Queue: 4 jobs
Job 1
Amino acid sequence: MAERPEDLNLPNAVITRIIKEALPDGVNISKEARSAISRAASVFVLYATSCANNFAMKGKRKTLNAGDVLSAMEEMEFQRFIAPLKESLEVYRREQKGKKEARKDKDKKADSEEQDKSREEENDDDDERMDEEEQNDEEEVDN
């Protein structure tokens, strides 16, 4: 848990970027307004987290999941955010699945290359043994 209340605030750079993206060009915002939005956003995050945690606790879990957050939004009467959140969640899951599959493909390729390299080394070792045996056989014939 945070030791000081200001530790609970979101970073000002993040808040400023979000505000700039939300406002039309040419619209400025005072430091006081930016600070108020930052604090409001922090309170919202804390409240949403607390509500989501209640759903996790009801489910006898210690880990909050996306379903808990969606349920918290409904309980907080932010129903209009649920559909966009679900869409964002689906996009996130697809991206993660794609990354996971790409990692698997990369790992399979690396494993395949390692096996090929291992086979080549085994073949080289076999060739060396055969060469040594041939030399030994030739030396025995000479003697």
Job 2
Amino acid sequence: MALSGKLIGYVEISKSGDVFHDLLRHKPHEMVTIAPDKVHDCELHEGERGAVGSVITWHYTTHDGKRKTSKQIIESVNEENHTIVLKVIGGELVDGQYKSFTNTFHVEPKGDGKVATWTFAFEKVDTSVPYPTIEMDYLCNLIKDLDAHNHAK
């Protein structure tokens, strides 16, 4: 069994990519009011919100009811294709489960609509560590909630 892996999740969305890109990059704290059952806090530790090199900690609850944290650094941003790359540097994912863990979010066209894509690239500490499907389900469901909220506006 491989220790390195990649997991990709897709969610069809009704809004353009710039809405999600702006929310994730510049206004992540607004997710607390949009999806309070999933996101509890988004702390900025270093840098400016949305800037490459900024460090933030997410406090969240996954669909299995577990409260978790994820400290991340923004590694890169691409405005044109609405991409944000976040490297996990603290929290449950990298404390004993994964040697490295990177989340990439981007939005691309699909037919007449758009699709939001999460890509996880990771290295597990050993073969007993499961694939991060709980985290992928969580983020895909969060995007659905954010899309429903933005669609209702």
Job 3
Amino acid sequence: MCSRQENNLSKHKTHLKSICLQYQLYLLLNSHFFCLLKNERGLIIFFLCAYVPKTAAGHCKWAEVLKDLEQIKTSKDIDVSLYTADTDEDTECQEPVIRCFFLETKVILQECLIKKCTKTQDVLNIWKNGNASLETNKLNSTTPAKCKECEEYEEKNFTEFIQSFVKVIQKECKH
């Protein structure tokens, strides 16, 4: 009985030591943090760390779209012809090309809603994510005269459309 109490007492001491160590570490870090804020350079570093948007290195804003494209590319219940932009368009035309792909995604979505496709949610996600990303660029968007309208591209089947869409998005992620 006595050894059991000693064992429990030992556990409590270890726990207390841990708490004391954490508290001392907290005080140490806290004091250095406030010292950092006492000078101009420290304030600049603080504001840069606190307010600069954090983006993961190598993260692409189209990553979610790529995931959903992978989900739908093997779908057998989507059978449509879609205007498919060229994957090797001039870089000036990259945004209109992407807009065209997302416009055609709306056609896929409508087809899926009519036919009750198994991948309807994935198609909806592509359309929503694409429009959300494109909306933020809308104010700066002017289509150069040399860029084609969506309807000027060749119509291709669903599989070819998705392959081209993936290439264009991957190309955009590399920039």
Job 4
Amino acid sequence: MIGTNSQSNIMETEEGIPASAKFGNDTAACIVSVKGLKENWQKWCDEHQEYQKHNPFSQDIRPSVMVPQRGHDDYGRPLQGSMTAQRGKDAYTHISKELEELCGAMRNIGHPGDKEGDGRSSDGRFVTVEFGELFEHYVTISNKLVGILLRARKQGLVDFEGEMLWQGRDDHAVITLLQ
């Protein structure tokens, strides 16, 4: 075979590496995955260090960290786009839906009346319901009636006497739906 273009006895792969020097598939996958793990770990470490530079509660306090002061818009609020901010938005949406359900239940079982709940005005501006009646109806919807009522009063949706309503003791307390 002298003088002819014959293939050599050592087979070469497309990368130019002899087949005998190449690793098996399992070994190559292991090397690739360990390299990937190392790169991913380093990337996470770098991101975490950068995050800690801006975290005012980090043990590694740097002068470059600006701690929000009272009165600023971002004081007491999570970073925009963070998972904490998303959980807050989700909770706000959930509470808003519960407030709507409460107002709907009060409209369904309540009686038109005035703000004092004595029924003298029947123009329909206000809906009144006793706490005991609302509790019996609303317990099938949610077990957080008193908390939702407190939140609704804070937002100006309902009004009732006292700081807290207790089942049994305040069953005849009048709750007025303002809107």
